[in-house]
Amino acid sequence: MNPETAEATLSIGEKITEAISIKTIFTIDAFGLHIPITETVVWSWIVMAMLVVAAYLVTRRLSDVPRRPQLLAEAMIEFFDNFVCSLMGPAGKAYAPFLGTIAAYLGVANLLPMLTPVGGFGHEPLFEIKPIMRDINITAALSVMVIVVVLVSSIVRRGPLGWVRSLFKPVAFMLPFNILEYAIRPVSLALRLFGNVLGAFIIMRLIEALMPVGIPVVAGLYFDLFDGILQTVVFVYLSTIFIAEAIHMEAQHE
Amino acid sequence: MLSFSVTFVISIVNLAVLYFLLRRFLWKPLRTFMNERTERLRRETTEAASAMMNAEELRQRYEDLLANSDEEAEWVLRDAEDRAKERSREIIASAEKDAADAMRRAAEREALEVAHARDDLATEIARIATAAASAVTGRALDGDAERRAAEEFIRVAANMESAHDA
Fold first, then answer.
1. C-beta atoms of B5 and A105 within 8 A
2. Three-state SS for B3?
3. Could you say which of B2, B15, B27 has the minimum Cβ distance to residue A145?
4. Mutation for testing the A interface, residue in B2, B8, B11, B19 having most A CBs under 10 Å
C-alpha cells in the first residue's frame, strides 16, 4: 500500500473514531457524586428546550382560526390520537402524549445535525451538531422507558396475578420466552436506533472525507433527512405495537 | 461508545421531564381547546339546524297567512265593490226621485202660477172691459146684470184663447 494512501486512510479512520466518540463537556459534583455531562446530554437538553418553548409559544394564544404553527400542532395531536387509537382502540388515547413526546424528541434529535454549517476546503465548520442517538445510553433510555410503559400497562390492564398468568400463555413452556421478550424488545429497539444512526453518521463522514464536494449533499438527503425520519417512525411504530399488544392483544387471549 | 454510564439515568430523567412538560404545555391545552371547539361547533350546528327548522316553520306559516290574506283581501275588495255598486244605485235612485219630485213640484208651481196669472189676467181684462164698456155706454156698469155680462164676456174670451193655444 502506498504510504500516502495509508496515511490518508489512517487519517480518515482517526477522524471517524474521533467523530463517534462522545466528549464530556463538564462534570457536576454534588452529594459526593461525580456526574459527567456529555455532549449528547447537552444536546438533549437543547432539543428539550426547543420542544418545550415551541409548545409554549404555540399554545400561548390559541385561536379558533388557527395560524400555521397551531395548525401544525393540532394536526400532530390529531394524527397521534388517530394513529394510536387505530392500533389500541379508544383506551390508546392515554398513550398518545407519551408516544408523541418520543416522536417529537427523536424527530428533532435526528434532524438537528442537518443544521451543521458547511465546512471544507481547509475550513472547519463554525460548530458541529452530531447525532444524539449515536450514544447508546440515550437509545437505551428511550427503549427502557417504552418497555416500562409496556410492562406497567400490561400489569394494570390484567392485574398482577393476571400478568403472571399471562407469562405462561399460550402454554407454560413459553414462560422463559415470554420473560425474555421483555428484555429482547428494549435491546432490539435501542440497538436498531443506535446502529442505524451511528451507521448513517459514519457513512456520511466517509463520504465527506472521500468526496467532499457535491456528493455529501445528495447523500445527506438520504442518510440525514430520510434515515432520521425513518428511524423515528420505526421506533415509534414498534413502541406503539408493543403497548397495543400489552393492553389489547393480551386481553384478547383471555 | 457502547459503555453504559450515568448518561442513561440522566436521559431517563430528561425524557420523563420532557414528557410531563409537553403534556402540560402542548397536549393538555391543545386537546382541551380542540375538544371545546368541537363541542362548540357541534352545539352551534345543532342550534343552527334547529333555527333553520324554526325558520322553515315560520316561513310556511307566513306563506299560509299570505295565501289566506290574498283570499281575504279579494273578498274585502269584492264586498267593497258590491257595497259601492249598491250605494251608487241607491244614490242614483235617490237623485232620480229627488229630480222627479223637483220636476213635479216645479210643474205644480207652474200650474199654480199659470192659474194665478189667468185669474190676474181675467181680473185685469174684466177691469179693462168694464172700463171700455163704461166708456162705450157712457155710464158706469153696476148691478148684477152688467157684472154677469162682463163675466160672460171674459169667459168667452178665455175659451177663445184656450182654443187658440190648443
1. no
2. coil
3. B15
4. B11
Domain carrying residue A169 = 15-253
pLDDT at A104 over 50: yes
**Residue B53 C-alpha from the chain's centroid:** 40
| Residue A10 resides in a domain | no
Mean pLDDT of A214-241: 89
Residue A3 resides in a domain: no
- Segment B62-85, tens digit of pLDDT: 988 888 888 888 898 999 999 999
Position A4 in a domain? no
Q: In sequence order, what are the beta bridge partners of A37?
A: A26
Q: Tell me the nearest-neighbour CA distance from A78 into chain B, angstroms.
A: 9
Query: ipTM value of the model?
Result: 0.88
Q: Measured between beta carbons, which residues in chain B are less than 8 angstroms from residue A36?
A: 5-7
Q: What was the pLDDT predicted at A159?
A: 87
- Amino acid identity for residue B136 in this structure: V
The count of structural domains within chain A is 1
pLDDT of A254 reads: 46
Residue with cell 190648443: B166
Could you read off the pLDDT of A157-183 as tens digits, one per residue?
888 888 888 888 888 888 899 899 889
Strand-pair category, A24-30 with A33-38: antiparallel
How many CA within 13 A on the CB side of residue A114?
18
Question: Domain for residue A249, yes or no?
Answer: yes
Q: Which residue of A has its CA nearest to B27?
A: A97
